[in-house]
Amino acid sequence: MEIGLIADTHNLVRPEALDALAGVKRIVHAGDVCSPEILEQLRTIAPVDVIRGNCDYGEWAEPIPLSDTFELGGVLLHAVHDVETLEIDPRAAGVHVVLSGHTHEPAELTRDGVLYVNPGSAGPRRFRLPVSLAVMSVRNGRPRIRFVSLL
After folding, report:
1. Average pLDDT over residues 111-140
2. Domains of the chain, start order
3. Number of neighbouring beta carbons within 10 Å of residue 113
4. Are 86 and 69 in contact (CB under 8 A)?
């Protein structure tokens, strides 16, 4: 199973992002969507789970949770926009993957047996940071991350 991990679109879905997500079974957006039209575009590819980022406000964003946990292909994924605001102990909660955004910088690290992933920003370029997203492949209950450069 392949799951698209995307964050910080800031009201922009690049054609390269849509191409990179083609064929995934699910998409998880880690916040800073900035408009509901972005989610509509992503839903043309696969079902979308989303959490709210610090730039998501207004009536459309109010029902979106600040964090959420999803079971995807036998992997428990917890999404929060800014990992610094993480309010759970992922290991104690049985979470395998923590997905975050906010920094616009792609990153992957394992700490205490939990995989932390930031797919980077798929929206407008910020400073000299890359424009990217990630695809998580789940095989036999094990997640593997592949980053996709969009520029």
Report:
1. 95
2. 2-149 (3.60.21.10)
3. 9
4. no
Measured torsion, CA atoms of residues 51, 56, 57, 61, in degrees rounded to the nearest 10? -40
Q: Residues with Cβ < 8 Å from 60, sequence gap 6 or more?
A: 35, 36
Report d(CA 53, CA 32) in Å as an integer.
4
Q: What is the pLDDT of residues 76-98, one digit of tens each?
A: 999 999 999 999 999 999 999 99
Segment 39-61 shows an average pLDDT of 98
- Please determine, for residue 141, whether its predicted confidence score (pLDDT) is greater than 90: no
Residue 91's nearest CA partner among 115, 67, 108 is: 115
**Phi, psi (degrees; rounded to nearest 5) at 77:** -115, 130
| Structure confidence at residue 59 (pLDDT) | 97
Q: How many CA atoms lie within 13 A of 39 on its CB side?
A: 19
3-state secondary structure the chain: CEEEEECCCCCCCCHHHHHHHCCCCEEEECCCCCCHHHHHHHHCCCCEEECCCCCCCCCCCCCCCCEEEEEECCEEEEEECCHHHCCCCCCCCCCCEEECCCCCCCEEEEECCEEEEECCECCCCCCCCCEEEEEEEEECCEEEEEEEECC
